Write a sequence for this structure.
């Protein structure tokens, strides 16, 4: 049976050589990104210790949320509209879109950054926060425009069907550089603190952001200097829906960590963070599928090619299962050995790692549901589902975390991941042209 399935999967790959080739290149590039994220966690956890790592990740979680406000849905909107513009060779519209997005993003991100810095230096003393935390917040605030712009640039590259390049100017490579520098400093006996780690994060963000700007120019815009700017419609109208969905998604992802900051110690935050971020590695294949297939979903739906949409969606699920299942088995069988890599203090997160790994596998069985809905104009459905899931998640967090600490956060996170995956799959069948159970290999 397995041999028969693999034979059919191979046949599908041969029929879609361009998509498969792009998927393969993106897998290699995203693999680098996943390794970078893992190394970032490893280096900081090993160097800072569980308590300081917990404090770093708590501030980092808030900073990530501010990044969603700074982008205000532009990443998803770019991926949808720029994909269609690129396929239709509307290069004048693309050129104007990039110019307009840069102005809007710069205004939003710099405003938020300045506001955080002002609050940090004027009002933070009332909260009795130490100097090291002040520096930590300051460095993250300055990083905000540079770090967030990585995702804007990457969305353009994905839309231009160059997803294999995007990971090299995104957070994964930047995280790898941070981890590498932290380890190097530790080897040379430099005292690596949370504030120094945040400063390294800042310099890495600036470097990758500037590099990405020139890469994007080289990939597309330098070859179309002669193109005149053209007006486009519909982009700004969708931003509030995309923004609300992404901001809600941030709270879904990071609300357990933030709520833990209210009720439990930095030690327990560190335990949960390492289990959660390690389990998320299973989900990295979903990033690849989203990156490669999103432009195709947008174009198939736009041209009403629902049969092609269904075929590609089905293939994406098979690919994710084949790649991620062995990793799931490793995490279930050897959780203690994996956590020992970060230090003996983290071994107590073994049960959390098992539970979170299983829950992270469920979205792979359902497929890239959220991206399919967003690329087919159903972003309001995503927003509404995210909002319902957020309320469920907050309720579970406030009920479970005060009593069960990081295990409460583990259960709450797992429930909302599974709930959202199953409901969004149902929405894809109802609204996005998906008829999964009618598909035949």
């Amino acid at each position: 049976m397995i041999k028969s399935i693999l034979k059919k999967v191979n046949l599908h790959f041969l029929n879609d050589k361009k998509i498969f080739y792009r998927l393969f290149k993106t897998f290699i590039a995203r693999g680098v990104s996943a390794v970078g994220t893992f190394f970032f966690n490893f280096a900081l956890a090993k160097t800072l210790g569980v308590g300081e790592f917990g404090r770093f990740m708590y501030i980092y979680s808030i900073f990530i949320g501010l990044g969603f406000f700074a982008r205000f849905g532009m990443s998803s909107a770019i991926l949808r509209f720029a994909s269609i513009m690129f396929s239709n060779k509307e290069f004048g519209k693309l050129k104007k879109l990039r110019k307009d997005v840069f102005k809007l993003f710069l205004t939003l991100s710099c405003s938020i950054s300045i506001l955080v810095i002002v609050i940090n230096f004027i009002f933070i003393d009332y909260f009795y926060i130490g100097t090291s935390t002040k520096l930590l917040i300051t460095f993250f605030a300055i990083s905000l425009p540079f770090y967030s712009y990585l995702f804007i640039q990457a969305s353009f590259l994905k839309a231009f069907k160059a997803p294999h390049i995007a990971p090299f100017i995104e957070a994964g490579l930047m995280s790898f550089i941070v981890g590498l520098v932290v380890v190097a400093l530790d080897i040379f006996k430099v005292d690596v603190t949370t504030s120094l780690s945040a400063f390294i994060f800042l310099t890495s963000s600036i470097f990758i952001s500037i590099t990405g700007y020139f890469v994007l120019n080289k990939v597309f815009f330098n070859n179309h200097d002669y193109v005149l700017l053209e007006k486009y419609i519909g982009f700004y109208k969708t931003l509030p829906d995309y923004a609300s969905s992404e901001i809600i998604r941030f709270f879904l992802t990071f609300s357990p960590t933030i709520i833990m900051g209210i009720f439990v110690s930095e030690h327990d935050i560190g335990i949960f963070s390492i289990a959660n971020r390690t389990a998320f590695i299973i989900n990295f294949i979903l990033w690849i599928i989203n990156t490669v297939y999103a432009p195709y979903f947008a174009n198939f739906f736009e041209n009403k090619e629902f049969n092609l949409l269904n075929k590609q969606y089905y293939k994406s699920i098979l690919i994710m299962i084949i790649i991620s299942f062995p990793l799931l088995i490793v995490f279930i069988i050897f959780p203690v050995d994996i956590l020992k890599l970060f230090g003996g203090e983290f071994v107590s997160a073994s049960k959390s790692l098992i539970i979170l790994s299983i829950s992270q596998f469920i979205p792979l069985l359902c497929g890239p549901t959220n991206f399919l809905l967003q690329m087919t104009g159903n972003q309001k459905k995503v927003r509404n589902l995210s909002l319902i899931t957020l309320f469920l998640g907050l309720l579970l967090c406030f009920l479970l975390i005060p009593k069960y600490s990081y295990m409460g956060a583990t259960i709450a996170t797992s429930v909302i991941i599974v709930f959202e995956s199953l409901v969004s799959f149902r929405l894809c069948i109802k609204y996005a042209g998906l008829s999964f159970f009618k598909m035949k290999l």
